[in-house]
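Could you join me in thinking about how sequence relates to backbone shape in a protein? Label the sequence line and the structure token line clearly, so we can match residues to local backbone shapes. Once you have written the record down, we can walk along the chain together.
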Amino acid sequence: MADGEGDPGVFTATALPGDPRLLPTVTSAFLGTRVFRDILHAAGVYSGAAGDTHRADVPSPLGLRMAAPGAHSPAESFTLNTWTGTFSHTIQSPGYTATHQLYAHHSLVHLMAFSVTIRRLDGSTHPVTIQLQSLFVPQSQDLDLRPGPDFQGAHYIYGQTLVPEVEGGPRPTVHMLWTPIPQSLTLGGEERERCWEFLTAVAGSEEEAKRSYSAGLSLAAAGSLHRSHVRAWAALRRGCSVELDGPLALRQALQGCLYYLLSAIPPRDSPGVLFHGISPGGLSNGSRGEDYWGHVFWDQDTWMFPNILLLYPEAARAILQYRIRTLEGARRNAREQGYEGAKFPWESAATGREVCPEEIYGTQEIHVTGDVLMAFEQYYCTTQDQKLFQEDGGWELVEAVAQYWCSRMVWSEEEQLYHIRGVMPPDEYHSQVDNSAYTNAVAQRSLTFATDMARDLLLPVPEEWEDRARKIKVPFDEERKYHPEYDGYSPGEPVKQADVVLLGFPLMHPMSAEVRRNDLEMYEPVTDPAGPAMTWSMFAVGWLELKELQRAWSQLEKCFSNIMEPFKVWVENSDGSGAVNFLTGMGGFLQVILFGFTGFRITGSSLLFDPAFPDDITKLKISSVSYLGNKLEVTITREEMRMEVTETSWDLPPSPLEAVLESGQRFPLWEGMA
């Protein structure tokens, strides 16, 4: 890869990818679709029981495509602008241009919209007609839809999902209003330019759908509908700005990842909108049979969450509230398997009950419960937000996870240690193993955090939490000085994905630099090169930790085979299989930049930093790192690292910060001071 000119946040092509799965997505916290697709999804709206639960397909009026009648192969271009959160399709003919713009409104999360603008380029006075080709039919295989009366010129349908997730459970209702779409649009002979706007509002209640549609109409009448979306989206992008000086492909990948991941989170000032978690393929995907059917995995808590927390802790809190709302389902999962506390599902939808179609994962891949709690720990260390734990249900979740781990362990008389047996580690090539290093380490971390949290909240600490945290087995080979993946692992056995390397980061399990290196050396050559995209990111972070910059870069470069042109859509596996719009891989990639290049590590007492850049990168600027109620602008070059407190205005009173160097020198950080 070489440096190049061009805007790293604008992706333009003259033809669309042959595989429609690789088309870009336009998404808000509540609605999502893929461009030119005739269905959309609404957050939290699933249909189907248990393992058949999937995102309900809502018919979408937004999936139309422009065509120029009679024109012989007019010039076309397709652009995803990540700065404005807008996709556009332009037809260029000798006498006119026609532009179709599509977006999910960032602040009006129940509203999606598109416009068609025809602009005359010459002095002619003949009419110009553009055809609108649409596959839209107001029916769904997942919803019992019926028509209602028109509202302010919009058509109206509503209905419930057909099958609840759990027997006797709720069947979500969908209400949709949309502007009727003609088969063609014509610019009159006397007109130079005209713009037509079309709105679609989708909500869980008739009142919310109508409110959103009316708000959109008012903005459209004032000529500011798209501008209001761009303003809200641009404010988010500014607040989460990350810029690199380095190869163009790297900068494009960075801005693409930020676009797709930030599209999935709630806007600021939306306390009334429930958040329903982030699935590996995002809200735009997840129909039956695709992208894990829209279920939420550890991908959210381990791979996406740390980036969101660092840049936008309010959205991180919303993700944790999704887990709190599904706690009762997690308790039921534990009871059904004969354990205490709460066992979070391997695959989660609306209720927290296990919805994985294959029993083995739901039964054995239990590390997800510790992954959920680690997100709570990272959030608490970063914000000191005790309200989440004291008033909003967080402590009940922490306690339930600790109870689960205690009930899941058994005492080994032989080793005088606690074991966790019969699990599947993150490496899914192995199952029914004992003492997965990652699973046991994350369980230990859960119990340690629960103990610390109880003390902070002045609550009694059960003795068994400390005892089991101290005495759980985390396999370690004293002779080779590395962590075997599980009891009986033989060096050289193939591994599906990042597993033991996660002990170093994000778990920060205590180990020497020698052991960290040995773990990387042991598992890098045996990890499946066709494995999921996030894997190489964690090897890159490990090598950056050890200041092996070229080795880190070679791992990061592997990610690029998962980024599909022209719209930088990630695929789970480099052969194109698995989930598309793979936010998990993007989350891992962003962690290399936000935690690998900076060396940021979130601990109970500080935010550590230890920058390291590969040779091709000369500067990194993160505009808004959130820490203890402060916003920090961080700029790192090869010569220096600058930190400036730019804001101290979060809900919590900010804590005064100081930078402490290894030499012991201390530098107070006050607002406006670098």
Remarks:
- The chain has a mean pLDDT of 95.
- The domain at 240-295+532-673 is CATH 2.60.420.10 (Maltose phosphorylase, domain 3).
